[in-house]
Amino acid sequence: MERLAILADAAKYDASCASSGTTRRNSRDGKGLGSTTGMGICHAYAPDGRCISLLKLLLTNHCIFDCHYCVNRKSANGPRAAFTPDEVVELTLAFYRRNYIEGLFLSSGIRKSSSATMEQLIEVARKLRQEHGFAGYIHLKTIPEAEPELVARAGLWADRVSINVELPTDDGLFRLAPDKNAGQIADAMGQLADAITDARDAKRRFKSAPRFAPGGQSTQMIVGADAASDSQIITRAAGLYGDYGLRRVYYSAFSPIPQASAVLPLQRPPLMREHRLYQSDWLMRFYGYAPEEVRQAADESGMLPLEIDPKLAWALRFREQFPVDVNRAPKEMLLRVPGLGLRAVQAILNARRQRRLTLADVGRLTVSIKKLRPFLVTADWRPTALIDAADLRARLTPPPRQLELFA
């Protein structure tokens, strides 16, 4: 239990543990145990509402690397612990039988060597699948410095694999993680992407072809540990999606750590910055924005505004694109109206086939009509000069809220 407390706490900084996109499997036929969907999946929720349905821990927090931003770095003074592969298997099965979890997220510090550690991570997944018939979700955090064939083997047993790029720029990686190599990380991600593509092609041709990382691969970037701007982070994320077909890019706001290196900032960045980067990521992935358009929402220093979301910031900067007629505009333009999400836009497209929509009709599809009014035209509403108002941004910016120290 002491080791579990240490290694589970050390794993909390890794955000890339979502379980979407995996193959649907269950053990209702009586063979094996576990499931990725359907009956028998119980999610535990923390008091703040976070879903904690995956057993998330490190194999060990011993590490031969000395990354400045990492709490498990070689020079850190803290309690160290390690599990054997058999112990992690036992923990996973015990937690699942108690309905605490639906799967396993396993990462590790690097002990002895990258390849030796990678072999142990793979052994955990292999034993769960082969020896215990575990059909639940497995996410392995792979080590790019390990031998390529080991990194590739991880996908044979895991639903999702991930390799962290760590920092948005190569300069930042060189300065804050001197033991890591940007080229090596890129090569490992490229090999995984090729293996995933090859496996999907083989599966289309042959039903007996082995599955390989059906949940794809993901990565994570630390935000605020170096001087990279939001525009640089958006550019890097767009390149990762395009080059490696990633399922997700996760952003993790830098958090000051004990006995921190002098090269790190003394304060963490605002958590709202992380939130705005996720919103910009959504704009590229689901709303049809090109990376350069998302960057246009940033200011001269390349930073996204914290007080308003990037979609609204873009709309205020390109007011000539508005207002949009909800009864005539194509889907691509409706998706650019601040306050309209994917479901609302689809509902508008469906409803306007039957009749002309009013402002009240659109208001029923959104949380607040205030943000929408300047940017759209309905059967009974036209914003006239409102879209050109000099104080429009101030009107749409949420008022500052006084926080309470002992709330």
UniProtKB/TrEMBL annotation:
Entry annotated with the keyword S-adenosyl-L-methionine: yes
CDD domains: Radical_SAM
Pfam family for this entry, one: Radical_SAM
Alphabetical list of InterPro entries matching this protein: Aldolase_TIM, DNA_rSAM_put, Endo/Exo/Phosphatase_dom_1, rSAM, rSAM_sf, RuvA_2-like
Matches recorded under Gene3D superfamilies: Aldolase class I
Ranges of residues in domain Radical SAM core: 59-195
UniProt entry keywords in alphabetical sequence: Iron, Iron-sulfur, Metal-binding, S-adenosyl-L-methionine
Domain of life the protein comes from: Bacteria
Cofactor(s) needed by this chain: [4Fe-4S] cluster
NCBIfam families, per database record: rSAM_link_UDG
Name this protein carries in UniProt: DNA modification/repair radical SAM protein
